[in-house]
Design goal:
About 40% of the residues lie in helices and about 25% in strands. The protein has twelve helices and eleven strands. It has helices spanning about 1-10, 15-25, 30-40, 45-85, 100-115, 130-135, 145-150, 170-180, 220-235, 290-295, 310-320, 335-340, and strands at about 120, 125-130, 155, 165, 185-195, 205-215, 240-250, 250-265, 270, 280-290, 305-310. A hairpin with a 2-residue loop joins strand 8 and strand 9. It binds phenylalanine (PHE). Phenylalanine (PHE) binds near residues 284 and 285. It is an enzyme of class 6 (ligase). Tetramer of two alpha and two beta subunits. Its cofactor is Mg(2+).
Amino acid sequence: LQGDLLSAIAAAPNLEGLEAARVHALGKQGAVTALLKTLGAMAPEERQAQGPRIQGLREAVTAAIAAKKAEMERAVLDARLASETLDMSLPVAGTAGGSVHPVSQVMDELAEIFADLGFAVATGPEIEDDWHNFTALNIPESHPARAMHDTFYFDKVDGEGRKMLLRTHTSPVQIRTMVTQKPPIRIIAPGRTYRSDSDATHTPMFHQVEGLVIDRGITMGHLKWTLETFVKAFFERDDIVLRLRPSYFPFTEPSMEVDVGYTLVKGKRVIGGAEPDGWMEILGSGMVHPEVIAACGLDPEEWQGFAFGCGIDRLAMLKYGMDDLRAFFDGDLRWLRHYGFAA
Ligand code: PHE
């Protein structure tokens, strides 16, 4: 019997066949089980003789099944290994990780610096209407400043008959904020702006950050302190001198342009130094014009404020030493790597 059972196990073609052989030998109705059952009816001496033999048979069959099963499983695994080419021991190919663009980097830095001064971040639409972009900012239809902005206009007007355009600066966010929020207001508004212009220092799309403070009793002293604190934090040095030059913007009065002092280090312009070798313009600013405050439905007798607007791309160029603005928007990884912005 043992020989028959073992050869049936050895001949099993697959796991199902092996299971059938196991049931045939060790199952409830199996041959070995039947033999075990006969032990009970035997005389003691006979049982002593037959018991070990039947147990031996059972163990031999059990061991043969286990061995056959292991062999079959190994064969299945070998077949898989032979057919699949995945080699887990090979080193992985390098994966390209993303990185932060210099413009985004500067926007993050600005948000952080101004958050410390109590400014929230505000946003507005890039597709604007001419009331928010011009009229409410004290630039009426006939004003020459409209022509100076090289505006991209859409063919259509909006539901209120206003001309639609790509915003030429972030100043319309001043209007949107004053119209919807009660003073006191302290916001910066970073974002994309558009003008029909292109050379080494101008791209049709560029980035600005607007700043706006509206409260009672705001003076130019607050403006100057805020700009100085911001510029020192941004360029990470304390010995920075600002120069405030009288200027003109329709939406501020008085208006000024702000220059930052640079010193020449081995022929290169480096922002900062107590005794500057020259000046670079970085932003426009001024006290918010009473007409603008009134256009937003606030009483200019009660509320005053200051505003500033600053080119973000220009800030990035000055801080990180880049010289061609157009490269910002080429998506060239070599350029980003060169300035340490991509791995
Ligand atoms: N909007 C102006 C520009 O684009 C900058 C500015 C903003 C000036 C706020 C004064 C106050 O040039």
